[in-house]
Amino acid sequence: MLNNMFLKTLRDQRRSILYWGIGLIGMAVMMAAFYPTIKNMPSVNAYLQELPQNLKELFSMGGLTDYSSPVGYFSAELFSFMVPLLLLVFGVGFGANAIAGDEEKGTLGFLLANPVPRWRVVVDKFGVLLVSMLVLGMMFWAGMAVCVLGLNIDLSLLRLAEATFGAMLVALVFSSLAFMLGCVKGNKGMSMGIAGGLAVLTYFLNGLGGMVSALKDYRFLSPFYHYVEPNTLANGISPEHVLVLIGLTVVFFAISIPAFMRRDIAV
Amino acid sequence: MSQDAVIRTSGLTKYYGKQLGIDAVNLEVKPGEIFGYLGPNGAGKTTTIRTLLDFIRPTRGAATVFDLDSRQSSVEIHRRVGYLNGELALYNNMTGEDLLRYLGNLRGGLDWKYVNALAERFQCDLPRRIQGLSLGNKQKLGLIQAFMHQPELLILDEPTNGLDPLIQHEFYDLLTETKLAGRTVFLSSHILPEVEKVCDRVGIIRQGKLVTVETIETLKSHSVRKLEIHFAANVPKDKFVTIPGVRDIDIQNNVLTCTVVGSLDALVKASAQFVVVNIVSHEPSLEEIFMTYYEGANHAK
Ligand SMILES: Nc1ncnc2c1ncn2[C@@H]1O[C@H](COP(=O)(O)OP(=O)(O)OP(=O)(O)O)[C@@H](O)[C@H]1O
Ligand SMILES: [Mg+2]
Q1: B246-255 long-range CB contacts below 8 Å, 24 or more apart?
Q2: Please, which residues have CB within 8 angstroms of residue A104's CB and are 6 or more apart in sequence?
Q3: How far apart are CA B55 and CA B25, in angstroms?
């Protein structure tokens, strides 16, 4: 695990990935375990159906039609908020820490004194971000798959994978933003704050955009719009929305390299 | 391969925004020498070193290491340099051994026999986690990682920071061996005796300006001492004011105080005409030496 910077960074993440993965699986299991009960409680479904449409929009459940169907239930309980949130918190934390954290700790100095070009540091650390996100997504999906099969829930494992993939992508947008800010400025707190703040802002931009007509035309600016709108769990992936999310991530990554190569390293 | 300078800076200037780091530093470090870079806190030692390694970029001027441009060829330079960070911070979540293995892998492999020999010399407990290590023990690891690939050039920022006298001695020996092997050392320090002990030449930097570069012999001959001579009776001042190199003469209660630059010989001979009770000599503080050179540099302008 100490052969190169990629493996070393991944090694440092192994516990963190494990704990977040267990959290995600735990959440999947809990939500799935409650599903049979909820399904048989017509009052819950009726209650949710009667929620003001605005409220549902605000929490990205605008498309919610039937809470008692597996797609409706898991969309609302997991994919509209919790899964992207958890992946995002993990990813933004890692992204901000990747370069800026090492810089603030002062460990970047003797690392960069090795015959390793700076771009390589950026590429390796970003690679670890992608891989950790993928591993977390797969752990969550696997947890869900076991529940779906074990409890005989009528949910396509492929759609589940596609929805998880979407959640990973939207989390990656903000994670790579935090990563990029760390490369530009080397300030971990600031990177985390800006990326996290923008995540909250754009989450509600999308939500409010669903009910306030003045904001409707700006919803497309929110990465969450491109994540929520296609209702992936029901309909599968929508290539153009996925491309927007991937495109943003690629842009942030692409800026990271020259930004880090050009500037002074603090320590 | 013949080089006339392993490190060369020309007009190297660094401003951190408006804050001056170093100002037009012209430096030459010759192959096979131990060069001491001496200066008080905030003088610009670390700034110079970080520029050489391309961690920070000069505002003006340029630097070459092995005749390679510090900015264009930083990876090649890093391959041939061993570096010790001034404000050493190591990964806490691994053992010393793992750290060295990792850094070795980044350099494409290690000679573990040599690493273990170094660890033994420095009495460094490699299998211990870095987190719990004392300051000096971390510093030893820092030294080992700088020396372990036997680089042509060592750039060491305050290498003896936190080392006990025994290990310091071991380190000085290692420096001497390194020099005998024809390799070059550039080290920063604010401890004059240390630099006098191990270096061939010294560059003195103060407030970002390289004030002088001297061999150790010259530095010593310029050295400034504060002297107190206690006489049995009062002595006439005019017997002393004419002695070359003696300044700031003051006589009170049979005690003469003065500052002497260079040799004490003339003053001692002049004093011998009278009955001397006691002579107290104060080793010059670094600041006093800086002041001499600094004033000298200003007068020269
Ligand atoms: N990142 C920075 N931002 C602003 N000013 C800086 C920065 N780094 C150094 N300086 C300033 O540049 C000057 C030179 O600092 P430098 O660290 O090179 O000194 P030094 O000789 O290494 O001192 P010390 O013996 O304390 O290590 C100081 O005035 C310092 O305040
Ligand atoms: Mg310093």
Answers
A1: B254/B230, B255/B228, B255/B229, B255/B230, B255/B231
A2: A186, A187, A188, A266, A267
A3: 17
B271 contacts B254 by C-beta, under 8 angstroms: no
Nearest atom (ligand 1) to Cα of A264: 1
pTM: 0.87
Residues in chain B: 301
Nearest CB to B83: which of A4, A113, A116?
A113
CA distance A53 to A51: 6
Domains of chain B: 7-220 (3.40.50.300), 224-283 (3.30.70)
Q: How many pairs of residues across A and B have Cβ atoms under 8 Å apart?
A: 64
Average pLDDT score over chain B: 89
> Is B98 in Cβ contact with A265 (below 8 Å)?
no
Tally the domains of chain A: 1
Confidence check: pLDDT of B80 > 70: yes
Query: Given an 8 Å threshold on Cβ–Cβ distance, is B79 in contact with A115?
Result: yes
B107·A107 Cβ contact <8 A? no
Q: At what angle do helices B112-121 and B96-106 cross, to 10 degrees?
A: 140
How far apart CA B233 and CA B274 sit, in angstroms, is 8
pLDDT of A60 reads: 62
Q: Rounded to an integer, what distance in angstroms lies between the CA atom of residue A161 and that of residue A134?
A: 11
Output the 3-class SS for B94-142. CEHHHHHHHHHHHCCCCCHHHHHHHHHHCCCCCCCEHHHCCHHHHHHHH
* Bridge partner list, B129: B95
Question: How many C-beta atoms lie closer than 10 Å to residue B83's C-beta?
Answer: 25
pLDDT in the model for residue B286: 62
Residues A173-187 have pLDDT tens digits of: 999 999 999 999 999
Tell me, yes or no, whether A173 lies in a domain: yes
Q: For residue B301, is pLDDT > 60?
A: no
The pairing of beta strand B201-206 with beta strand B209-215? antiparallel
Question: Does residue A58 contact residue A204 with C-beta atoms inside 8 Å?
Answer: yes
| Residues, chain A | 267
Q: What is the ipTM of this complex?
A: 0.85
- The domain of A157 spans 2-262
In a domain, A267, yes or no: no
